[in-house]
Amino acid sequence: xxxxxxxxxxxxxxxxxxxxxxxxxxxxxxxxxxxxxxxxxxxxxxxxxxxxxxxxxxxxxxxxxxxxxxxxxxxxxxxxxxxxxxxxxxxxxxxxxxxxxxxxxxxxxxxxxxxxxxxxxxxxxxxxxxxxxxxxxxxxxxxxxxxxxxxxxxxxxxxxxxxxxxxxxxxxxxxxxxxxxxxxxxxxxxxxxxxxxxxxxxxxxxxxxxxxxxxxxxxxxxxxxxxxxxxxxxxxxxxxxxxxxxxxxxxxxxxxxxxxxxxxxxxxxxxxxxxxxxxxxxxxxxxxxxxxxxxxxxxxxxxxxxxxxxxxxxxxxxxxxxxxxxxxxxx
Length: 331
Fold this sequence. Notes:
This protein is an alpha/beta fold. Helix content is 38%, strand content 19%. The chain contains eleven helices and twelve strands. The protein starts with a helix and ends with a helix.
């Protein structure tokens, strides 16, 4: 009997050892991809909530998602960490700060690049690959009954005094900066005159989008600077995105693979997922347009007109414009 028990004990130990080895090998084989992204992407209402689990389920790749602030802060984190960074993929770098990012990125010719209209591909070397885009625009509350302005200059008229909410570009708000560059590109040499007039004509100039949008939805003013896609969540049908023939400032969000990553294959799969199955979730969560032209947009986008003419800028141009505006008007 003792001999039988001894044999059984040895067999059980062997089985446990084999099982432990199997679990260990599985753990070693399972890859973990570290993704740095901006806070909104990672937040409770962000796209990551649906995209990351779907990607993990499809590929079997674990994702270590790191929220690192706004787009500039995400990039700064990678640059400060240098060769020691754990980041494999960076998400949310916008076209206006792209030049700073190129040095830490590797090129990737994703097969989904052919689905992206060429006008939104701002990096010919494909170190940053666009995943969504939008246009800054003024949103009108139609229940106000006011006549819709048809240009930036219209907003300087007396009939709109106290009826417009702006965002201060000095705050670092992407919408405030977008408005600044929009006026500079659309109005030409005398663009700061617009800001001089609007500093008196606007109801207020807030420090960020959330405050501005809150005032607008509370009925404090019938016009607010935002995005052409902002009305996609409007169930009342009373918000109208105004598209001006003079053109609009665009913003394009992109993702890239960090130079020297040890998980190149996994990083490529993640980029491809963002450009395919993840496209609609990205667009809806970010209130932006998906870049993949083959994606069928839901009815919510019927109230989100695209601008036919748009402008893009580099970070140097933004810095120069901010300096000029601060010295001329916003002292």
